[in-house]
Amino acid sequence: MNDHLISIIVPAYNEEKSIGILFDRLECLRDVYDFEILVVDDGSTDSTCRIIEDFIQKKPYLKIHLLRHKANKGKTAALITGIQNSKGDIVIIQDADLEYDPKEIPAVIAPIESGVADVVYGSRFLVRRASRVLYFRHYLANKLITFMSNLFTDMNFTDVETCYKAFRGDLIRNLKFSSSRFGFEIEVTAKISKLKCRVYEVPISYYGRTYEEGKKIGWRDGFSALYYILRYNLFD
Questions:
Q1: What is the largest distance, in Å, between two alpha-carbon atoms of the chain?
Q2: Among 221, 146, 150, which Cα is nearest to 181's?
Q3: In what helix (H) or strand (E) does residue 188 lie, and over which residues does it extend?
């Protein structure tokens, strides 16, 4: 068993089809890590919250903590709630939609565990095992956003919009965030660059889903990301 406590932050909005499967997959990490799961129900209108409560009753050993927003506030707000309530030596973000497989969490947090990194991003564009082929426009948008972010931070990321981001717990809990929706990805990247953190990327697989399957990010979020790049790198 690893000595570090891992806080897994799970923002969830209307994820009744996947949240139970996610908990089952996270359970497989019990033999390796001491971890807590902070799942933030962001105003879901389906059965997401009931399913989470059922798992808390059935599997108390998983240390699932349910945090609730009465109304939908967006991913950044959900992450802020989860981070503020975390206690782990390492904090990692895990989306509830199964686009990212929890079996890759050990590889993502390994550089922090070994003491060489303060922050680790899981990249979908480094050498990987599997990646679902989907929207070319999303690929181009991600490349543009990553390029623009790198231009201002002078960092050589390949994937700033990735879900899998891991941090030293004391570091991420001391940062303040003010963006909305999916702005966290750009805002946290700008802030860790200014703090001169030791940052690593590791390759991960990606099991993307379509809009028909519940994907939520849209073209407006791409324009917001460009705005946040300017805001948090030049004026914040």
A1: 49
A2: 221
A3: helix 184-194
Nearest CA to 8 among 65, 72, 70, 50?
65
Edge-to-edge strands, sheet with 119-123: 64-69, 34-42, 5-12, 90-93, 165-168, 119-123, 199-203
On whether the CB atoms of residues 42 and 19 are closer than 8 A, the answer is no
pLDDT in tens, 176-235: 999 998 899 999 999 999 999 999 999 999 987 565 655 556 667 778 889 999 999 998
Confidence at 83, pLDDT banded by 50, 70, 90? very high
**Helix %, strand %, coil % for the chain, to 5?**
40, 20, 40
Whole-number pLDDT of residue 220: 76
Domains belonging to the chain, first-starting first, are 5-235 (3.90.550.10)
